[in-house]
Amino acid sequence: MVAWLFWAQGSDSSVVSKAKETTSKMSQRSNKPSLTPQFCFNETALRADFLRISRSTIDDSIIQNLNALVTPARAGFDPSSTRERQTQATRKRPIDQEACQGFKDNVLFQSWQTRSDVLNYCAGVALDPQDPDLISREAESAKDRERVVDERLDPYSGRFFPREARTESLASLIRNERGVEGIIRARTWGLVTERCGDIGIGWEEALNNWRAGRGRN
Question: Vertex 114, ends 28 and 61: CA angle to 5°?
């Protein structure tokens, strides 16, 4: 009994380091591909090889990713946990706030921003394959680029002038994928705030705050 208590107390100090190790491994999943017009026009590379994999490893697996941040020994053994499924028991355990913040800063927001960067670049390709960096020049901040992309890709805005069939097809794909991103991020953020605590803001504001902290506002 004494040995168990000593182990439980000692394990408390390893919670953050263990969570940091887990976060570090997850953060390696969001590498940005080499951005070229050819990449954007390759629907398999864009949707299947990049977007699908990024979403499946971070957002679609958000419950497992959050559970990986939990160190059961911190709270000691809970006898009631033997009477319910392990996944349910794990979901009830609060996550260390430092671990939560590290996950959001180094994994979740980074993954979202990487996907935003790719979609914004490919939006530029859809508008002008010869000048894909046009949007980056029109809007310096990441937040403003999101607005410019919405305006320029909107077929009813009066500013959407597809140059050829393949660029019109790419623009439609980017519009659809940006809509999917919004749905996915809202769901993910809801689960994150459920486990890490609701900070009273939505995912868009949280992401913009993260960008501002990194000089990408």
Answer: 60
